[in-house]
Amino acid sequence: LKLRSMMLNLRASSALYRAHASVCARAHSTLIASAAAQAALKGYPVREELVVQWDDMDAFQHVNNVTYFRYMESSRIAYFRALWQTICNMRKTRQLTHEEVETGRLFLHGATAIGPILASTSCKYKRPLTYPDRVIAAAHIPLDSIGSDRLLSYMKIYSERAGAIAAEGEAKMVSYDYRTGRPAPIPAIIREAIIALETNPDAEARLE
Question: Which has more confidence, 71 or 208?
Answer without folding.
Answer: 71
